[in-house]
Amino acid sequence: MATDPPVFDPSEHPHRRYNPLLREYVLVSPHRMKRPWLGQVEPPAADTLPQYDPKCYLCPGNSRSEGAVLPQYTETYTFANDYPALLAGPLPPAPPAPHPLLITEPVLGGCDVVIFHPRHDYTLARLTVGEIEKVVVEWTRVFVQRGMQEGVKYVQVFENKGAIMGCSNPHPHGQVWSMSSIPQIPSVELRNLVKYSLSPPPDPPSGAPRGDKGKPCMLCEYAHFEKGAGERVVLEEGPWVALVPWWAVWPFEVMLLPTHRHISSLLDLTPDERTSLSTAISRLTKRYDNLFSCSFAYSMGVHQRPTPMQLDDEGEAAHLHLHFDPPLLRSATVKKFLVGFELMAEAQRDLTPEQAAKRMRELSEVHYLDLMD
Amino acid sequence: MATDPPVFDPSEHPHRRYNPLLREYVLVSPHRMKRPWLGQVEPPAADTLPQYDPKCYLCPGNSRSEGAVLPQYTETYTFANDYPALLAGPLPPAPPAPHPLLITEPVLGGCDVVIFHPRHDYTLARLTVGEIEKVVVEWTRVFVQRGMQEGVKYVQVFENKGAIMGCSNPHPHGQVWSMSSIPQIPSVELRNLVKYSLSPPPDPPSGAPRGDKGKPCMLCEYAHFEKGAGERVVLEEGPWVALVPWWAVWPFEVMLLPTHRHISSLLDLTPDERTSLSTAISRLTKRYDNLFSCSFAYSMGVHQRPTPMQLDDEGEAAHLHLHFDPPLLRSATVKKFLVGFELMAEAQRDLTPEQAAKRMRELSEVHYLDLMD
Ligand SMILES: [Zn+2]
Ligand SMILES: [Zn+2]
User: Is A99 close to B225, i.e. CB distance below 8 A?
Assistant: First the structure.
């Protein structure tokens, strides 16, 4: 009682950080990381996958399901998922609620699979920038096409990579799920971006870009601040910054977003912006692989404006960004589990975002496999 | 365009369900489950764990960490975690925010480990009701004790069970993390329970119990409705109901709560209510183990009123309930991963809550190991 409280040290004292995008807290326990980083890395794993796997349902020319054969595609290739979680309309009307607390909302949409490259043994980290750019162009095409489908309100581009994430096929691919409602997480983000855009701009002005009609944009503001602060930045590439967010839940979580202007969707990218985004993805995924000398597992998602394109609050307030949520903690096999306290109470991390960003800044961008014989 | 929209069928049409406790949606894709349940079960796994493991840091008489030895305890035993995520005070004052978007909140608290039983090879499903009741009594004791610690606002009781959940020690135990802020998830639940308690009561009256001062309680109302509807109920035990919530995210997610009166914490249980709760836990965990003939993995958490006990809105609106979130989907080894679309957009399930509850109702309450030689 008589002792003075200590002065707060973010690398020492347990604390919570606030995520203004989701209005959620994450618990940070940095004192558990006080041991110095031991540089513990797995021995590099040689890439043992074949370039072509006759049993892979994504390799060119193979049968992807009963009666459907993939063409001999030579670059990205997209097809509608044969077992989609969402179906095209017509949409049945919502049934009456059996109780006011039991609400149902019918949904329509569709699910696409985007194969990144014909080579079975590649990942984004092993593609050239030009090849990644073809993936970005394909994401954009599907975003526009699905966004014009009747009733579709949101097009969610994502990639789930790695056996540790339950992804059973290593062939490089992502998915696009399109839906007649804005899904939970982008919906909360958009609501908070809209709220921020309607609030008074920072005073004095921060020098950050502004959104449509000069409105404040939380992510323009945030990216601008982080670029200046530097301690959570992993890399910068032209107008793009990859950073470990202040409120990151996953050990090496990264957000990749533009800093120089308000961009609401993939469709709004200039050719130069698209190329530099592709370079940023290449550099980031190489760093990820080099972190534990393994093909790094993650879930990646693109958040952007709802569809169809219209001049509403959400469309204006949306700020294009990519999330990378990787579960790996200390090596290729040590995984962070979101269980127990995290499922029941609050997300928690030991390693601080600043420590994670520093580790990632120190890594090479030459892929570890390119250094092996 | 000319075809009439079909009539909504919850076991046929993709839809979203609303969770009023968290104000979140979950996407349900029931058409992917149209194949009949194949009764696929793993061959029963004989229990190969020893009753005592000399290397276990939780077995009686063993060393739990450098310099700390466990006594020869004969029933439940609690000790403070040697590597806690939360530390006792004094709490440093919050630092100034480097930017209005970057908010830090220092926290204090403590982390306890509650060993359920001396036997290394037991789980809640293998304990007698009397032994489970000792665990419930111990949870209550720690809830009261930690709730009196200076600055503690919430006491989170939970169990993380199973190697598939990252729990490295099978010795039956749970944890209690106490914190100077109400953690994210119970905080959102409490906010919505308070809102509901301040809204007009159902008209006409539903016959459900009411909260303190006759205020409406969302969970009294919900449990009362589900008890009557029956299709999501797994079991009833005296005043307790175990049900798969309308908005369940995990395949066999269960909420266990009282239906006969508004109870805000473990401390408010009568001896009879505590015994019937213990019986309900016993019956539920036996059914879980019988589902795939394995020691079923889950995270379990107790949600109740904040501490210290005071007559505020949150304390009054809290309704005691236990969540069981199990990741197993079709067998002891097929796990549901919360990745990709779920991390980036919205929780998703194929099996409907009604189908899951029906499966669980059909199971025996005689533990599969008691049927083996
Ligand atoms: Zn986002
Ligand atoms: Zn709860």
Answer: yes
The average confidence (pLDDT) of chain B is: 92
CB-nearest to A15 from B83, B106, B167 is B106
Q: Which residue has the higher pLDDT, B218 or B36?
A: B218
B346 neighbourhood in chain A, CB within 8 Å: 183-185
Q: Is A323 annotated as a binding residue?
A: yes
Identify the residue among B15, B226, B349, B354 best suited for mutation to test binding to A, counting A beta carbons within 10 A and taking the highest. Answer: B15
**Which residues, in sequence order, are CB contacts of A202 under 8 Å at separation 6+?**
A208, A216, A221, B100
**Cα A267 from chain centroid (whole Å):** 17
pLDDT number for residue B37 = 45
Those residues whose C-beta lies under 8 Å from the C-beta of residue B362, and which sit 6 or more positions away, are none
- CB-CB neighbors (< 8 A) of A352 in chain B: none
For residue A13, say whether it is annotated as part of any ligand binding site: no
Can you tell me the ipTM of this complex? 0.93
> What mean pLDDT do residues A23-46 have?
69
Residues with Cβ within 8 Å of A96's Cβ and at least 6 positions away in sequence, in order, are none
Question: What does the block give as tokens for A99?
Answer: 């109780």
Chain B residues with CB-CB distance to A87 below 8 A: 13-14, 31
Nearest Cα of chain B lies from the Cα of A105 at a distance, in angstroms, of 5
Domain formed by B15-44+183-372, architecture: 2-Layer Sandwich (3.30)
Distance A195 CA to ligand 1 centre (A): 15
Indicate if A173 belongs to the active site. yes
3-state secondary structure of A262: coil
Query: What's the pLDDT tens digit per position in B325-355?
Result: 999 988 888 888 888 999 999 999 999 999 9
Please, how many CA atoms are within 13 Å of residue B237, restricted to the half-sphere of its CB? 21
Look up residue A144 and give its two tokens. Answer: 């526009």
CA distance B372 to chain A (A): 31
Residue A229: closest C-alpha in chain B: B98
Residue boundaries of the structural domains of chain B: 15-44+183-372
Query: Which tops the pLDDT comparison, A164 or B63?
Result: B63
Chain B positions in Cβ-Cβ contact with residue A338 (cut-off 8 Å): 338
Q: Is the separation of the CB atoms in B114 and B173 below 8 Å?
A: yes
Question: CA of B101 to nearest chain A CA: how many angstroms apart?
Answer: 7
pLDDT over 60 (residue A2): no
Identify the three-state secondary structure at position A286: helix
Annotated binding-site residue numbers of B for Zn(2+): 56, 59, 120, 171
Selection from B302, B233, B208 nearest residue B264 by Cα: B302
CB contact under 8 A, A13 and B92: yes
Counting ligands in written order, which one lies closest to the CA of residue A255? 1
Q: From the CA of B288, how far away is ligand 1's center (Å)?
A: 36
> Does B164 have pLDDT greater than 50?
yes
Chain-chain contact of B5 with A93 (C-beta, under 8 angstroms): yes
Measured between alpha carbons, how far is A141 from A266 in angstroms, rounded to an integer? 9
Percent of chain B with pLDDT over 90: 77
pTM exceeds 0.80: yes
Site of tokens 């699910």: A111
Distance between CA atoms of residues B324 and A340, nearest Å: 10
Question: How far is CA B330 from each of CA A364, B327, B356, rounded to the nearest angstrom?
Answer: 42, 10, 11
Q: The tokens 């700020």 sit on which residue?
A: A319
Dihedral sign for Cα A135, A140, A143, A146, please: negative
How far lies A90's CA from each of A93, A148, A151, A154, A308, in Å? 9, 15, 9, 17, 18
Dig out the tokens for B371 from the structure: 């049927």
B201-254 tens-digit pLDDT: 888 889 999 998 899 999 999 999 999 999 999 999 999 999 999 999 999 999
Contacts 24+ apart (CB under 8 A), A270-274: A272/A238, A273/A238, A273/A239, A274/A133, A274/A136, A274/A137, A274/A140
Residue in chain B lying closest to A225 (CA): B99
